[in-house]
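Before relying on records like the one below, remember that each one covers exactly one chain. Contacts with other chains, cofactors or solvent are not represented anywhere in the record.
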Amino acid sequence: MGTVVGIHVVSAGPLDDDTQLDRAAREAFGDLEHIEEVFTPFNEGSDIRRLARGDLSICDADPQIMEVLDLCMTARSRTWGLFDPWWRGWFDPTGIVKGWAVEQTTRRHLAPLVASGLVDAVGINAGGDMQLLSAEETTWTWNVGIADPFTPGATLGRLSLRSGAVATSGTAERGSHIIDPRSSHPARSVASATVVAQSLTEADLWATVACVAGFDDMSWVRDSTSESALVVGVDHGVRRWVGDAADATPPGAAPTPWISEPERERRHAS
């Protein structure tokens, strides 16, 4: 997936036997490696590239292709075409498949560790995109730094949440690689977009959409499943919201503190 993937596990004390934990981690990494082999557009032997060339039929492809295909068709409709994996004339779900892969892997292999009481919390971090889980009875809270796209190593703020997903898209790490399917040109007005949701599939999708829509267009927020988000423009302007409440910080102004999970809950309740 062109990035580093790490599994993070939190336990209140030492584990008497880490066999189950070790097995779950190995199975999780194995799933991600298989998904990479199937979906990467950078390997001519992947199912995605073979489908594009006509060397492989959808019926003979990995069954996960059909699952992601259905997901993408729904996503294209929900986003009014701001997400379109067919913009190049062939199917490339790059803008959503990483979030989907990490979420599915977390729920399949790591969530049972929390549900069984073996660990207090567990999560996967794939290049800054995270699916995080915490047991109901634990006091553990994940603290996630939101990277400043203009200053390597610096953060714009910190997000605190017990369970959920965080995804960031933008130009800071890989340049102008996000394409606006309406024009087939790179989306350039957003330096980074960070979206918080319960599902990493959703967070990844809407972070991509935020970049494509552009800094000045927040109309997509009402259709998203984001719980909170932050968009940084190339002119250093900042926009953030909780649910459907959008706010804008003028370019050059100091950003306000990131909204924590308790604050999100308070605002939703009010």
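The CA atoms of residues 185 and 222 lie 25 Å apart.
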